[in-house]
Amino acid sequence: MSMNRRDLLKTGLLGAGAAAVAAPAHAKAPPAKRPSEEWDVVVVGAGFAGMCAALEAAEQGARVVLLEKMGRPDGATVYSSGWIAAVGSRFQKNHPEDSKQAFFDDMMRLSHYRSDPDLIRVYAEEAGDGIDWLADHGTPFFLWENLPSPELSRCLISPGEGITGGSKLIRCLMAALEKKNVPIHYNAKAVELIADDCYNVEGVSCITPEGRRDYLAKGGVILTTGGYGANPAMVTQYIGPWASRLIVRGSPWITGENIIMANQVMAKLVNMDQFYAGPITPTGHANPSPLMHAGYGIQVNSEGRRFVPETWLQVPKAKAIAERTPDNMSYMLIGKDADNNANILSNTIKRFGRLGFKVFEGETIEAVAKAAGVPEKNLRETVEEFNKAVKAGKAAELDPPYEYETPHALETGPYYMIPAAGGMASTFGGPKIDPDARVVNYENRPIPGLYAAGAAAGGVWYADDIGGNQLGGGLVFGRVAARHAAKRAKARQDKKA
Question: Is the dihedral of CA 450, 455, 461, 467 positive or negative?
Answer without folding.
Answer: positive
